[in-house]
Specification:
With 538 residues, the protein is of the alpha/beta class. It has 22 helices and 14 strands.
């Protein structure tokens, strides 16, 4: 054809291309050689009047080192077959992990691992794209249906993490609501704070669990002004619990919607693992069919629930559950959802298996709660200062960043126990701590070793014990009167734990019956057994 006749011969094109590549390559190599000879390897250091990028990096790092808030990451490799043990950088160096957020050990549950292996063999390792482009599968839809059922909401939406879920949902929703005002608990997670910033909405921060302060702030605005109240069910570093029913009531009174982060509660609380909001109506939730709305329940009053698949469920990912119209709006507008590769098939399959497993099994929750109670009692007897709370988290107050890091290092190097220190900005300066999370796999021997190790470290570093904090007026509930501490710990006044004695007894009996009379192992610790006897007698 005429077009073919006008094109140069293929061999000529190939030779011209090779010559061009060769000449460009030689020029680039010569320029690189000149640059290297003049200034050495490429770095962010600059000369003359240009900005000193490297100097800024070093100054920011120096500030972190100076205030002892620089983060060191320990090389901890958790062993599925030896949970809760792990090895460090050296495979033969075994340690016991006491600070994992894999609260119930679901990451090594055979049902979960098996579902992930099957999905890997069937669908491969990757999702293939965003949900909009080749990354939307039956497993994603099934996972979202499971989550909506779990929280008794119309719909759910899965994200790559709950940080992304919180940031994307709050920023998208509150930037869409005209003149929206956000009310945020002072102890809210960084992901919610980031979402609030990105929304550019007006915000107010109310004192942690302070209902009077929240109402004072809400009352400043007409009921017609769009408002969002953002708070958590279990606050991860203190273990305190949000006042969910009271906050929902205030939100309804002043025309606000509620945004509840259940990240550290899903899988852990409620008869099916939906979180603290479900646990408020434990009996009704146990009786109602899965997924069915319970009018008047605390969970039903929450507008938006967010959670994670990466803690008690043992996988990775985050989600929201809410009305279908709100979920669809976030799906359609949130960049954090639209432009992110979706969860891989094995992750989605493992999450579905974990949710289904924990919606039926009470064994893991029962063991975790009983082990937590025993540990808190043992630490109290030893005078080790535990921040009071009604949840599964055991925060041990140190009060100094450098010594908190030293305490963590001593536990690891001298006692083969891994507990991470928590410093600013995760907690306020002066409230640095060790964060302990007992799991179902921590037996009595491990617990005794931990208490002895902490007692030794406290002596070695001359750290304050509970009585010392009391003499100094107390801090974050330690050494304070119960009346004062109850002002911020949440849950029900006069009730020590979210999981009450009769509920644990019921969970124990249910699980025994489900397993044909086989008792939950390890056996109920003696002090908890006595509490069950008393609860049954009452």
């Amino acid at each position: 054809t005429r077009q073919q006749q006008q094109q140069p011969p293929p061999m000529l094109i190939e030779q011209t291309t090779r010559n061009l590549i060769s000449s460009v390559g030689k020029a680039a190599a010569a320029a690189a050689a000149d640059d290297a000879g003049a200034s050495g390897p490429a770095t962010h250091a600059t000369q003359g009047t240009a900005f000193d990028y490297e100097g800024l990096y070093q100054a920011k790092l120096a500030k972190k080192h100076d205030d002892k808030s620089y983060r060191y990451f320990n090389n901890i490799n958790r062993l599925a077959a030896r949970y809760p043990q792990a090895h460090t950088a050296k495979a033969s160096n075994l340690v016991t992990v006491w600070c994992s957020n894999d609260y119930l050990g679901q990451s090594k549950n055979p049902a979960v691992v098996g579902a992930m292996k099957e999905a890997l063999d069937t669908y491969g390792a990757g999702a293939g794209g965003t949900r909009n482009i080749a990354g939307n599968s039956a497993l994603h839809l099934r996972l979202e249906a499971e989550l909506a059922t779990l929280h008794r909401k119309e719909a759910a939406l899965v994200f790559s993490s709950c940080f992304v879920a919180n940031d994307a949902t709050i920023s998208t929703l509150c930037s869409a609501l005209p003149d929206c005002v956000i009310f945020s608990d002072a102890m809210n997670h960084a992901s919610m704070i980031q979402g609030i910033r990105n929304s550019r909405a007006r915000k107010h921060v109310f004192r942690h669990n302070d209902l009077a302060h929240l109402e004072q702030l809400l009352a400043q605005y007409p009921r017609s002004t769009p408002k969002l109240v953002a708070f958590e069910s279990v606050y991860s570093m203190s273990g305190t619990v949000g006042r969910i029913p009271e906050i929902c009531a205030l939100a309804k009174k002043y025309g606000a919607i509620t945004f509840l982060d259940e990240v550290h509660a899903v899988g852990m609380y409620g008869p099916r693992g939906a979180g603290v909001a479900e646990h408020y109506d434990y009996a009704a939730s146990l009786q109602a069919p899965a997924g069915q709305r319970i009018p008047g329940s605390v969970l039903d009053q929450v507008d938006i629930v967010t959670g994670t698949l990466g803690k008690a469920f043992g996988i990775v990912g985050g989600y929201i559950a809410a009305a279908s119209s709100l979920v669809d709006m976030i799906r359609s507008y949130a960049p954090g959802f639209i432009f992110t590769t979706s969860l891989p098939p094995p992750i989605s399959a493992g999450a579905v298996a974990s949710i289904q497993y924990l919606s039926k099994s009470q064994r893991e929750r029962f063991l975790q709660q009983t082990h937590m109670r025993e540990l808190k009692a043992d630490l109290a007897s030893a005078g080790i200062p535990v921040v009071p709370n009604p949840s599964h988290i055991v925060p041990v107050l140190v009060g100094d960043a450098e010594r908190a890091k030293l305490a963590s290092d001593l536990l690891l190097s001298e006692h083969k126990i891994y507990v991470q220190s928590i410093n600013y900005p995760t907690v306020p300066v002066g409230e640095e701590r060790l964060r302990i999370t007992p799991g179902p796999g921590h037996d009595a021997q491990m617990r005794s070793r931990l208490v002895r190790a902490l007692d030794s470290v406290w002596d070695t570093l001359a750290l304050k014990r509970s009585a010392d904090w009391a003499r100094d007026g107390g801090r974050c509930g330690v050494g304070e009167s119960r009346t004062n501490s109850e002002l911020h710990v949440g849950w029900k006044r006069g009730v020590d734990y979210v999981w009450e004695d009769h509920q644990l007894k019921q969970a124990h009996d249910y699980e025994c019956a489900r397993k044909g009379g086989i008792r939950i192992e390890p056996a109920i610790p003696a002090t908890v057994q006595q509490q069950f006897v008393s609860a049954t007698a009452a």
